[in-house]
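Subgroup meeting minutes
Present: P.N., E.W., G.H.
Scribe: E.W.

1. P.N. recapped why we're keeping a running log of single-chain structure predictions: easier to compare across weeks, and new members can see raw inputs and outputs side by side.
2. G.H. added today's entry (58 aa).
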Amino acid sequence: NCGHEIAVHEKIDKIAFTGSVEVGKRIQQVAGKSNLKRVTLELGKWNIETYDNYYDLT
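Output recorded in log:
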């Protein structure tokens, strides 16, 4: 599927995912075996991070 291809692609070095714990664990496992890309996970249905141009995050 598309998610698996993104997780294993060597030219992608960062993945951000919001969703289930089960899928997040799988993404982390597969991404770690490809090129040790950085992974940001928001798992479950609570505490979702939202970013917009209003806040200076630097």
